Amino acid sequence: MAGLKTIIVLSFILAIGFLLVILSSALFGNYFPLLVVATFVIAPLPNAICSRCANPDDFIEEGSSSGFVDLGRFFTGFLVVMGIALPIMFAHCGIIQVPAMIMSIIGGLLIYGTIISFTMFFQESEDF
User: Fold this and answer.
1) pTM greater than the 0.90 cutoff
2) Helix crossing, 98-121 with 67-93: angle to 10°?
3) Where are the domains of the chain?
4) Residues 30/104, Cβ–Cβ less than 8 Å
5) Concatenated DSSP letters for 47-73?
6) GO:BP terms for this protein (predicted)?
7) What is the pLDDT of residues 96-108, one digit of tens each?
8) Rounded CA gap, 86 and 6, in Å?
9) Residue 116 class from Cβ within 10 Å (0-12 exposed, 13-18 middle, 19+ buried)?
10) Residue 123 CB-density burial (10 A; 0-12 exposed, 13-18 middle, 19+ buried)
11) 56 neighbors 69 (Cβ within 8 angstroms)
């Protein structure tokens, strides 16, 4: 059971992630790295929505996966890769600078990792 210390640590890491992404935009005067926040915040949603739609039966093994779950994992993976590749593409095209790219990627990964950790720690167990 996760407690108050877990909430404090996760909120601190989330604040550092947002700070890095905002600083990558504000320090270099270009606000394109803020798109990374949107992709990493939206990334867990397809997995959560599709896992709710899967509705496993009692007779099906836990190890087997549904098409909905696979589709959600695919879209989540796509959004995570897009959140990493978007700043790299911007830096390659000269839209943002390389330090802004590094700060944006690290901040985005911290945001996504915090969201995933929060859902893992505070997930309710279903008892039948």
Assistant:
1) no
2) 160
3) 4-54+66-121
4) no
5) HHHHHHHH---SSS-TT---HHHHHHH
6) late endosome to vacuole transport via multivesicular body sorting pathway
7) 999 999 999 999 8
8) 31
9) middle
10) exposed
11) no
